Amino acid sequence: MREHSITHLDPRAPLVLDTRDLPRSPGAMREVVRVVPAPQDLGLELIGVPAGADLSLRLQMTSVSEGVYVSGQVTGPLVGECGRCLREINDTLDVTIAELYAYAHSTTDETTDEDEVGRMQGDLIDLEPAVRDAVVLALPANPLCREDCPGLCSECGEPWDNLPADHSHQAVDPRWAKLNDLTR
Ligand SMILES: [Zn+2]
Ligand SMILES: [Zn+2]
Question: What is the superkingdom listed in this entry's lineage (predicted)?
Answer without folding.
Answer: Bacteria
